[in-house]
Structure formats: C-alpha cells, structure tokens
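Quick one - inputs below.
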Amino acid sequence: MLQLVLFFVFGTIAVAAAVNLLAQRHPINSALSLIVVMASLAALFLLMGAEFLAAIQVIVYAGAIMVLFVFVIMLLNAGAEERTPGSRVAMLLGFPAVVLLAGSLAWTLLARNPRPAPVALGGGFVGSPTAIAQLLFRDFLLPFEVTSVLILIAIMGAVVLASPPRTTAGAASPEPPAKRER
Amino acid sequence: MLRLYVEEKMLSITTFVIVSVIKIVIALAVLLTAVAYTVWLERKLVGRIQNRWGPQRVGPFGLLQPLADGAKFIFKEDLTPPYVYKPLYIAAPILSLVLALTSISLVPIGNWVTVRGVRTPLEITDVNIGLLIILGITSLSVYGVALAGWSSNSKYSLLGSLRASAQMVSYEIALGVSLVGVLIMSGSLNLREIVDMQGGHMAGFIPRWNIFRGQIVAFFVYLAAAFAETNRVPFDLPEAETELVAGYHTEYSSMKFAMFFMAEYANMITAASIATLLFLGGWHGPLGGPWWLQAILPVFWFALKVFGFIFLYIWIRGTLPRFRYDQLMAFGWKFLFPIAVANVLVTSLIVALQK
Amino acid sequence: MVPISYYLVLSAILFSLGVVGFLIKRNLITLFMSIELMLNAVNLAFVAFAWQWKSLNGQVFVFFVMVVAAAEAAVGLAIIIAVFRTRETLNVDRVNLLKL
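Output:
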C-alpha cells in the first residue's frame, strides 16, 4: 500500500516535471524540470531496491551532467526559445505521432505482460554497492574498461571542440575557454 | 535505505515518527546554534589574529552577538532588484539552505542510545549508503549558487556563480576520490560502520584512526578539497570581494543573504563532521569512564574534533591569501586529483597484499 | 505492491515525452535535454526488469548507460558551444548549413 502511494506520488511528479520541461520556453526552466524528473526517478529506484543506482543517479545525473547543462546555459546566456516556421510543422506532426507511440508502447507492455510480478519494498533484493561492484569488476570487467577509454576520448573531444580555433588567435575572445573537464 | 526500514520496524510507526521528529528538532536547533556561534568564533578569532578584539559589546565576550546579528538580518529591508528573474532569485537561497541542512541528517554523532525502552541511533537516519547520499546532496548544492548568480542578472553575480560552479564541480572529483582510500580500508559506505572500524588502539597507544593508518595524504587532499567545496579562503574566488563585490550573492539582502550565509557555515560543519567521521575516528576518544560518562563522552569527543576542524578553517582564513583563478583550477586538476588517485592505488595495493 | 507494468507504463510515458520534446522544441540545449529524458526513461525500465527477474545485470546496465550519458553530455555540450560560437544562435532551424 505504502509502495503504491509512493509510486504514484513520485510517478506523478516525474510526469508533471517532464511535461513542464516541454511547456517551458526558457532552457533554464527546462533544465530544472529535468533535475526534478531525475530526483523522482531516483526515489523510484529506491522503491525497487536499486539503492546504489539511486545515489549515483543523483550524484552523476543531477549533480554533474545537469550542472554542465546549467553551466552552458549560463555561459551562452541563452534566451527564451524563438518560434520559427519549423516549430509549427513539428507541433502538428509531433503530437499525434507521439500519442501513437505512447499508446502502442503502453498497450504492448500491458498486453504482453499478463501476470506481472509484484514489486515490494524490502524484499531482500538490494542492489547494494558491494553486489554491483562484484558484478562490475568480475563479469563486466571488459565493458567497464572500455567505458573508461570512452570517457577519456570524450574528455579529449570536449576539450578540442570547446577550445577556440587556433587560426584566429588574434580575433579570439580574451577569456580562456570554459573549463569543461569532468 | 532498506536497512533503515528493517531496523526501525521494531518500533511501532507512531513511536518512529515521534522519535524522528524529536531528533530532527534537536538536530536543527543544535546545528543552527552551532552555525551562529561558528560565525561568532570566526569574528573573534580572526580579530585576535589581526590583533584586535572582535565582537565584545553585546553580552560577555560578545557572546550575544549572533542574536544581535539575527535580529539585524530580520529587520533589514528585503530588496528585490529590478530585472532579476524572480522565481529563481527567490528559490536559490532557499535551495542552498535546505540542502545544507539536509546533509546533516545523515551524520551520526554518537553510539546508539536507549531512552525509556526506545533504542535509537544518535542521528536522524542510519542509512547504509550514507556517505554516497551526503555526496549526492552536496553535489546538488551547486545549483543554489549557480542559480543565484544567473537569476540576479548582474555581471558580478554571474561571474561569481560561473566561478563557483566550475570550482565546485572540479573539486568534487578530488574530494570523492580522496575518500575512496578510507572506503577501501573499511569496506562499507555506512558512516557508523566506518567509525566502528576505527575503535581501539595500535601498538598500545596510537588510536586506530584512519589518519594514522596510512590515510594522512588522503586527509590533506580532503582538507584542501573541502575548503574549495565550501568556498572558503584560500579558495573563496566565487565571492572575492576585491574583484567581484560579493560574487554570487551581490544582489541579495536581508534574510535571503542570511540564508546563503547560514548555508555556507552549515556546509562547513558538515565537511568538518565528515572529516571527523572518516579520518579522525568519529566519536572514539582516549578516555573511558563510569557508565553515565560513557553515554556523554562520545558526543563530546565528536564535538571536540569538529571544533578543531572549524578552528583550522578559521585559522587558515586569517592566514592565507586568495589564489588566482587559473592557479585554483590547476591546483585542483593537476595536483590534488593525481595525488588522490595515487593514494587510491597505493591503498588498494596494500589492502590486497594484506589479504 | 506495485505491479511491474506500472513502472513500464511510466517509463513509456516519460520516453514519449522525451520524443515529443525532441520533435517540438527548437532550442539545441532543450533538444539535448529531451534525449537525456529518454535515457532516463529507459533506465527506469531496466531497473524494473532487474527487479522482476531478480538479477542485478539490469542495474549494471543502467550504470553503463549513465557513464555513456555523461560522456555524451560532455561532447554534445562542447558541440553546442562550437555551434553557438560560429552561428550565434541555438535555434536548430537556423543551423541549416553543412559547413561551419
């Protein structure tokens, strides 16, 4: 019962914040709504016993990735979104397509899953840091190492992309490029 | 989280709620008093360091100064400058303060106590991933600063908050990595278990605190990173008053400014508590005693260690000049972070060899 | 007791909202945030399945998704900064030339 209430509370918050992400014109409001979505998803992860993921969700997604978004919005001083002819077409085509997509997804999930297993809190299935670490460093060691290389490449790519072009050194802005390392 | 559920289930739900509310009220009262008197201590100590008296008019030794400050903050005019982005301008200080006060709820200050048959830990919640959650909450506190600077619509605020968010995100990494050594040694993320691992003595007299068990480098990395995380001298670039007026809270006044102020000091206390728990043995102290003393001594040792850490904060503030911004970034990325990684490597090697 | 299909439907709704955002928004940064929303919805589905089959593999997968999302955010935002530097706009309709 408590689980159901908590699910509906956090599920409603997540959906409302996601809708707000779409409704807001200014990117910073959208970013803040996305942070709310992520926080409520972290709570839902806790309901399903994924405590390590819930913490990581807050630290990595809300605490690092979204900080980068907010940082870039502040740095570029991006104003409110402007309407262009493309947006009307996108609205007209986008909404029906998405209603279709959501409907078919939900129908498939409900129809193909006739007797779903119940999800309960404290059922002994816990994604504790120890359990995750054992999987990560034994069974998934190679993917883990590959992702670390991926991150290294991403860092170098970000530095190269975000630093000002060398050829126009005289015309480049006097301020150093934004520190975007992570 | 789940552990919390299992353990507290032994109490009935009403007892649980009552006990929790009592603990929250006590923790908030203690924390806010501590914040107020940290400000007093800072003014007094920096005064003595600079060869002046500090506050001494209000009450004996100026002890009532925090009350006077509070009254003054409340009665100041609450200005809202034109052209600010109002919703975020109001939300930012609230967010800062709420996050700063929330993180203290996971800090244990002593052993379990039993009062009238109700057994409860001396903290608001005992969570088995407590350290991760504290890191998560502190990583969210960037938003208060960033949004304050951006929504104020002033160049000083914006520059200050850009500096602050870049600095906090960068130093968070060094901070997190510096804790990994301790986590490897204790094999747990629960703060209470980490402290329990540090009880007893080595070679008869040296306490088994993590700082004496090879984590001294990690301790100094944590120290530097925690100073940067809380925006204190010598890393207080976000509010460098010689360049940026007051940084991200330039446009704030009255209680909104006071909220930032309180959040900063609450963050200091949280950082000091984490250092005490992870490196300095938490509530373990050199002296035992009769049973009635046993109950109160752990809290006393804990408070003493936190006080020592805060004293260090203030001492350094009175002593060191401010960094330049590129020096700050280079220090964090090119010096602290490699040292923290090396510490993790050496610690894990030693732990692996001992097994 | 929450049936797992509730979680899956919630995940589907969030994913669809992400798709809507990607289709109707015109700001590059907001588009990027819609992608993150879709990734989050998928993560929710992964955790729900991990719970249903009592297997931690799903949670490890979410971990990898987060890592890749972090790398993607770093590179993507760098691209956005580069685009803004040359075009002075963040509207995708105005970013319509192949060369910089």
